[in-house]
Design a protein that fits this description.
- This protein has about 140 residues and is an alpha/beta fold.
- It is about 45% helix and about 20% strand.
- A 6-stranded parallel β-sheet has the order 2-1-3-4-5-6, sandwiched between helices.
């Protein structure tokens, strides 16, 4: 990627946003263009800025991450979506994939896997947290 990938972060916990920002800041190919702390604000920001990637929490107030992903698939189909979540249940994974999500990363794995997951999704791949894949076998 010669041009920086434009990323929006969406999580209702300021500490999580700060941590994500720090992880992404070390990558010269990534640029954070906005953050949102609830689903409605995220929808508005993502539709307005059309980033390359939106990293969203599943459990957000006003509009949860699954509903947000569904809306974005219709209203901003060019934006790739990755969820960051505490939910290790396969039902959440299936709902997310059905909603158009291309990356599913557990918060407990984010420090190790966020950059790899983002790169995978940005290049058109599908990323599912290895802990879920192993757990579900």
């Amino acid at each position: 990627m010669t041009q920086k990938a434009r990323i929006i972060l969406c999580d209702d916990h300021p500490i999580v946003l700060a941590g994500l920002r720090n992880l992404i800041a070390s990558e010269t190919n990534f640029e954070i263009v906005g953050t949102a702390s609830n689903g409605i604000a995220a929808l508005k920001l993502i539709c307005e800025l059309r980033p390359d990637l939106a990293i969203i929490d599943i459990s957000m107030p006003e509009l949860n991450g699954i509903a947000l992903a569904r809306r974005l698939s219709n209203e901003a189909p060019s934006v790739k979506i990755m969820v960051l979540t505490l939910h290790e249940d396969r039902a959440f994974l299936k709902q997310a994939l059905d909603a158009g999500v291309r990356g599913y990363l557990l918060k407990r794995s984010a420090a190790e896997n966020l950059i790899q997951a983002a790169r995978s999704v940005l290049t058109g791949g599908l990323y599912v947290d290895p802990a879920i894949v192993i757990w579900s076998l």
